[in-house]
User: What shape does this take?
Amino acid sequence: MNTPGELAVSIATTLPTRRGFQVFHKNDRNFFLIFVLVCWLGVVMGFAHPVMDRINGHPRFAAPLILKIHASAFVGWLILLTSQILLIRTRHTVLHMKLGLVGVALVPVMAVSAYFSEIYTQRWHLTQGANNFAFFIVPVLDVLGFTVLATAALALRKNPGTHKRLILLATTVIAGAAYSRWWGDGLTAAFGDGLGGMLVNTYAGADVILAGALSYDLWTRGRLHRVYEVGVPAILLSQIAATLIYHSAAWPPLASLVIGH
Assistant: This one.
């Protein structure tokens, strides 16, 4: 009788082997530049109005230090990503690798500031007589997803193909939130706020970007990178989970306890 080890080896030798994934492609430099520009577009369009209101002295609410840290950290991430892409385009690989270490400090700042900024925003809604507890799950899972993906990207930065796709997925999660601010009201008016409607009005931006990333790999490599095979379904499952929790009657009381109301 075969031992478990012999059986595993036997099975492995009979499975078809996958051809190697092409790490670099001549169009990568243009694809990732387009990607970061799409992210900037969402951020500018999603936050231009509240930023201008704040500049003109008419903010919806005061911005405490945690909100300023949150905004600075997330803009800093996009600036860092843009710089990294431009460094690769200009073949400054060594500087690219050194500058990437900034992300090690930036990711935890982004995660903590995003969480406590949402706590502050939820409490502000209460002062306006509005209960927005159900929505709390959306930014919480977004921050969790970003943190996991970005941390994995930093840990695997010596594997270029894996690293850059994890960075893309992590950035897509937070860029999707910006697109939701831009498109959300219009999509809600068109599709409603039910289970299906919320998936559209909250996650359409992120999902369009993901579709573009998957299509690019299929076009240039003929198959998907393993990061996408695991990461994209995980993101979609997170979106479904957030939607179900949002519509659950059991969630708002739990969110209220977390928020401290």
Notes: The longest helix spans residues 160-191. The chain has ten helices and no strands. The mean pLDDT is 89.
